[in-house]
Each structure stands twice: as C-alpha cells, then as structure tokens.
Design a protein that fits this description.
- By secondary structure, the protein is mainly β.
- The protein has one domain: monomeric porin ompg (Porin, Beta Barrel).
- It contains 2 helices and 14 strands.
- The longest helix is centred in the N-terminal third of the chain and has 19 residues.
- The chain starts with 6 loop residues before the first helix and ends with a strand.
Length: 280
C-alpha cells in the first residue's frame, strides 16, 4: 500500500534544510568559490570480471567528502554497486522434464546459460554537523537508497540527533551517534514500510602503522515494523601519499523486507570488495 508523505517527514526535511541554510550563512564569504573550496575526502573504485564456463562481473564505487566551516562540518557520501552473472541451469521441455542429448553414446543433461542482474544498489546522503563542544555535535541526516534486488524501490531517511567523538588523534578515532526521525521504504513487491525510527551509529578507525589502516562501522535503524542493520569492516594498504588498496566487507540486513520472487529469500546481503582508494 502506497502512503503519502507524513507531517513528521516534512518537518524533518524543513529542519534539516534550515541547518544547511544556517551553516552557509555562517561562512565568512558567500561567494560560490567559498562553497566549492575546502572540500576533501576519498573516492574508491573496484571491478571484477570472470569469463569461461561461467560469466560474472561487478563494479562498485563510493565517494565521501567533508568540509569544515567554523563550528560546522558538512559530509556528503554516495555509493554504487552493480553485479551481473550468468549461470548454467537445466534445460527443460514443455512438460518440465530435463532435456538430454547423446555424447559418445551416453545421455547427458543439456545446460543453458541464464543471465540475471543479482545486485543493483545506489545510495546518496548528506549530513551536517554543528559542534557545540569540541567533541560533541548535533547532526541531521538526509539520505536515499535504491536496491531493487533486495525489494527496496526507494528508502529515505530524515534524522536529527547528537554525536560524540570519544577520541580523535593521529592514531585514529572512535565516535558514536544517536538520533530519531522518519524512514520511508517503498518496496517493489508488497506493502510499504514507513514511520518513526530510532537511529544508532558508531565509527572506529585505527592507523596500525604508516601503511595499514583498519576501520569498522555500524549503523542501525530501529522501527516498529522493521529493523535495519549495517556492519562494515575495512583494511587499507597505502600505495602512495594519495592512493591505497582497500579490502572491505559489508553485511546489511532487514528483518521484514525480502525479495519474494527468490526461491530462498535472505534477510541479509554480504559484499566483499577490493578497491583502489584515492584521496581527493
């Protein structure tokens, strides 16, 4: 059942927009150059391809940018993952019986390739932060996600909350966030899931040495109709001052949203990637 945008969602969007407008007004210069300059972050890209008896390919990319102006910090982030694979399945006749052929006088089952898109995910978001103390900040989050193979046509969140950095130095950092807001999930098949959610997130980074960095991230959206969790682990190996190779693993789960068209639908997805990461 499709639902109209709720008043809570409108209020949250207006509040977050006000945060963004206020942060822009707080800048010393209102020029376009002042808005463009000062952004920095990382971009990553990875791809694989398999050919032969089976075929599979995937491409994944992500970007994370940040800018600090006075007590304001702006974060922009986005990610994309698309995978396709070809598998061999038994060929069947009009009666549903396996088709065989003779090879060297022996009956052998006929296999045919079937190509399908097994993943197609796009996510973008924006988070402004206002530091009312050196390590404590108020934040807002607006983000959107599409993941049709996971039965998510469009998911959007509007959140406000408070975060704290327990430590931040040359060796790394540890931070945690908690907030509340609205989340609307429009599914491909079935009933939409909308309503208030409680949000919790944590980020940890440890620079093991000059060349190796480890990170761990956690996120949870706790709603009455659905609980979403996301866990990410990464290990980056520095190649140069601005480039690194990163091995990442991500587990994402929805308690009540699955793809009903699959024979054995799963409530979680796992993705392991090897990416080239560039500082920008």
């Amino acid at each position: 059942m499709k639902r109209m945008i709720s008043k809570k969602q409108i209020c949250a969007s207006v509040f977050l927009s006000a945060l963004a407008v206020t942060s822009v007004q707080a800048q010393d210069s209102g020029s376009v150059d002042a808005l463009i300059q000062g952004w920095s972050g990382t971009a990553s890209l990875g791809a694989t391809s398999i050919t032969g008896n089976t075929e599979a390919s995937n491409v994944n990319a992500s970007i994370r940018l940040g800018k600090t102006v006075g007590k304001w910090e702006h974060l922009l982030f986005g990610s994309y993952f698309k995978g396709d694979s070809t598998t061999l399945v038994e060929k069947e006749d009009e009666n549903g019986e396996p088709v065989t052929q003779l090879i060297d006088g022996e009956p052998v089952q006929v296999l045919v390739p079937v190509k399908s898109g097994n993943s197609d995910r796009l996510a973008v978001g924006y988070q402004p932060r206002f530091y009312w103390r050196p390590r404590t900040y108020f934040f807002g989050i607006i983000d959107y996600e599409k993941d049709k193979p996971a039965n998510i046509d469009l998911a959007s969140r509007q959140l406000v909350g408070v975060g704290h950095k327990f430590f931040s130095n040359e060796s790394g950092f540890l931070s945690a966030e908690a907030g509340i807001g609205n989340k609307t999930t429009t599914v491909v098949i079935g009933d939409d899931v909308s309503g208030g959610v409680a949000y919790f997130g944590a980020n940890y980074l440890n620079r093991i040495n000059d060349n190796i960095t480890f990170n761990a991230d956690f996120r949870a959206d706790l709603g009455s109709d659905n609980t979403y969790t996301e866990i990410g682990l990464g290990l980056a190996f520095k190649l140069s001052e601005r480039m690194a190779v990163k091995l990442s693993h991500q587990t994402r789960g929805n308690t009540d949203i699955t793809n009903p068209t699959l024979d054995s639908p799963s409530k979680s997805d796992n993705v392991t990637t090897v990416n080239l990461v560039v500082d920008i």
